[in-house]
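Example 9 (inverse folding). The structure is encoded as follows.
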């Protein structure tokens, strides 16, 4: 499935359009004054029409996949967006009507009136657009943000890598998929969702590295954390939850467990993985396995960096996601 925002033509911000038009005016010439002023207004018309088309082509909010809907809700209130969309449509329609009216007026009036009429039209349209510019620009920036999510395909089988900051999510994604996210040794490395693919014959599996999510209540979460949870809740797939067993862990074991419990409450298939086994700190490691054993869940012990235990993990993930050894999606 294509990102519904990928093909959307996003116009420039209102002020940019007005400024470009102001600079263009002296450069537009014609065979007569009338002809020149008509050309000027026609060019303005073409630029304004882009806002109209944009408002019409903006995907219908009601028809969006929950992943995209949630992405919008993280950025803005849905009702505000709808209001701004209708303001964008209305003000561009009004502007286009004004321009059409003045173009036909210039045609009818004597040559001596042409420049005055052009300036009048220009002023009126500019003020209509400027009055709505806050709203129009808001829709433009929302569309821009949503287009950036183009790599996430909600229809593909998905493996979501979750866990506290700095646990090794990006490292794991880069080791088991085609993605090459930046990896750095400090928390909050993962500012945006990284997407990689594993291709088994012709079957694409999407591997998503969620931004570091912290162990804290929903209302305190920032946008990055909300994006991560959106992916977890609204993409269909399985979750790999990574625990950090090293001394450098950014969260305490209790915090890691609380976070794991929260992810468990999403009712998805979750594969617990203990990472940094190459540098495991016994006290932490023992607490993690004690907890997982009490939950009666099967877990995997890996070192993403040193590539220990990755084959077993991959095998399990393919089984769970329904891609078996013969590389076919299971029909069950
Ligand atoms: P993310 O924030 O969860 O995406 O974590 P990163 O993948 O950016 O890794 C954070 C740090 O942990 C980096 O310095 C990695 O090199 C290191 N790291 C990742 N996996 C391992 C591992 O298995 N063992 C050890 N010792 N370090 C690791």
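The amino acid assigned to each position is listed next.
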């Amino acid at each position: 499935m294509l990102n519904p925002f990928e093909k959307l033509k996003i116009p420039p911000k209102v002020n940019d359009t007005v400024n470009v038009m102001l600079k263009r005016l002296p450069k537009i010439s014609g065979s007569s004054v009338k002809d020149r002023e008509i050309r000027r207004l026609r060019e303005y018309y073409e630029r304004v029409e882009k806002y109209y088309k944009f408002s019409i082509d903006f995907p219908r909010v009601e028809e969006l996949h929950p992943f995209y809907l949630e992405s919008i809700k993280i950025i803005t209130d849905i009702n505000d967006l709808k209001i701004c969309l209708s303001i964008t449509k209305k003000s561009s329609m009004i502007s286009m009507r004004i321009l059409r009216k003045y173009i036909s007026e210039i045609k009818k009036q004597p040559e001596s009136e042409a420049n005055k009429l052009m300036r009048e039209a220009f002023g009126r349209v500019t003020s209509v657009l400027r009055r709505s510019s806050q709203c129009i620009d808001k829709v433009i920036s929302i569309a821009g943000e949503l287009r950036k999510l183009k790599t996430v395909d909600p229809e593909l089988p998905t493996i979501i890598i979750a866990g506290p900051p700095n646990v090794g999510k990006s490292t794991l994604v880069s080791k088991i998929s085609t993605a090459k996210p930046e990896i750095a040794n400090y928390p909050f490395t993962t500012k945006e969702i990284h997407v990689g693919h594993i291709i088994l014959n012709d079957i694409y599996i999407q591997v998503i590295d969620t931004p570091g999510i912290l162990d804290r209540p929903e209302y305190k979460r920032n946008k990055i954390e909300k994006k991560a949870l959106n992916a977890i809740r609204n993409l269909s797939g399985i979750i790999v939850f990574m625990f950090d067993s090293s001394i450098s862990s950014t969260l305490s074991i209790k915090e890691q467990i609380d976070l794991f419990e929260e992810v468990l409450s999403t009712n998805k298939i979750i594969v617990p993985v203990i990472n940094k086994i190459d540098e495991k700190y016994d006290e932490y490691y023992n607490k993690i396995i004690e907890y997982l054993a009490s939950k009666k869940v099967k877990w995997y012990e890996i070192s993403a960096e040193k590539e220990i235990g990755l084959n077993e993990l991959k095998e399990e993930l393919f089984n769970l996601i329904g891609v078996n050894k013969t590389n076919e999606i299971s029909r069950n």
